Amino acid sequence: MTRIGRRMESRALLAAAIVLALCGDGSPGERGNENAAAPAARRLAVGVSSCSAQPCHGDVARDAVWPIWGNEVTIWIAQDPHAQAYRTLSNERSKKMAERLKLGVPANRSERCLRCHSPFDVATARGRAAGLADGVGCEACHGAAQDWLALHTRQDWPTLKAQDSHGMRDTRNLHARTRACAACHVGTAPRDGEPGDDVDHDLIAAGHPPLKFEATAYLAKMPKHWDEKDPRTGKAPPRPDFEAQAWAVGQAASAAAALDLLAYRAKPGQQKSWPEFAEYDCYSCHHQLYGTGRRARPPSASPGNEPEEDTAAKRPGLPTWGTWYLSLAEVLPGGGEAGSNSVAEIDRLMRALPADRQQLVHVARETARRFDASAQTLAARASPAVSADDLLARMKQQAPRIGRANWDGEAQLYLALVAMHYAKHGTQTLPSDDPLTRSLRSTREELMFPASADDERRFDSPRDLDAAAALRERLLPEIERLLKE
Amino acid sequence: MRPNGYVTRRCAPFAKLSRWACRLACLATLCAWSAASADEGPAFLGAERCIDCHTQPSPLRKEDGSTARVTLTEAHTWLKIDKHSLAFRSLESDDSKAIGKRLGIGVTRDRRCLSCHAGWSTEMGPPPRADLGVSCEACHGPSSLYDVPHTAPEWRNRTPDEAATGMVDVRNPRRRAEQCLSCHLGNVAEEKVLTHDMYAAGHPPLAGFELESYAQVMPPHWRPSPIARRDELADVKSVVIGGVVGWREAVRLYRDRPATAAGWPDFARYDCSTCHHELERPSWRQERAGRPGQLLAPVWPSVLAELGLRHAARCDGAAVRPLRREVEQGLAALGPAGGGAAAKGLLDRLDELLKILDGCTYDEAAASALLRDICEWGQRRDLDFDSARQLGWAFLVIDRAANGELPEQRRADRLGELRSVLSLRLPATREEEILAPSHQRAMFDAIGAYQPSAVNARFAALADALAP
Question: What's this model's pTM, rounded to 2 decimal places?
Answer without folding.
Answer: 0.84
